Amino acid sequence: MEYVRNRTTIPVPVVLDSFDTTWLGPGRLSRINTPENLRLRGRTEPYRRWLIVMPALPGKPVSEWEGPKLGNAPKEQLQNLQDGLADWVNQLRALTPPDPQRVSGFLGGGVQSFRINDSFTPVGPFRNPAEFHAQIFCKAYPDYPEPGDERLKRLIAERPHKDYKICFTHGDILPFNILADDELRLTGLIDWECAGWMPEYWEKAASLRSAWIRAEPWSKIIRDGFPEYEDDMILERRIQLWFQP
């Protein structure tokens, strides 16, 4: 968060402090930290949970935006949202990665992504996009779960050899993480736990994961704001036919 706040104009909260909150109670962590789960995930230490203390930003999550529902919002307000998101993502994409090939979390370790798994278990890091795309959560099959057309088969065959740019990625740009005023002018971006250095299309893929790819007008805002990477989104839709994090 501090890295982004100091290098872009994206409104990001100031980090005041952080605390280990594992003591608050077992909850979900107790289910994740069973010996069997830890063994399957190759961990010797249990997961811990932290609380970040930060001042509130103005505005409210777009998911709670008052006034007309998002689907009935005036065109001008939807354009404010779309243009603001495009500006933010372009600023993130302009940041120089520490390694032009490595797919990783922000500090170079494993990737955490709700697009990959709901348990938020880190995966990787990966030496390059080809190694990343060879993982099960990025696999698209030409004839499963139904026969694919020739374009799909070509895209599947080309992906291991495709030259992807590595970009800084928020990884969870969805309405509940975007703050805006009553005119849908953006005022803040929160929840950076999925941030990392990812293949250039990943921001769009993460913002249209699971049911969000069918949720209008959100899906249209993302597609119109980021018209690139339609080939990768064809593969994403194929992956989502069988793989649901």
From TrEMBL:
Give the domain of life. Answer: Eukaryota
SUPFAM superfamilies linked to this entry: Protein kinase-like (PK-like)
Cited Gene3D superfamilies: 3.90.1200.10
Domain Aminoglycoside phosphotransferase span(s) in chain numbering: 42-214
**What's one Pfam family the UniProt record gives for this protein?**
APH
Q: What is this protein called?
A: Kinase-like domain-containing protein
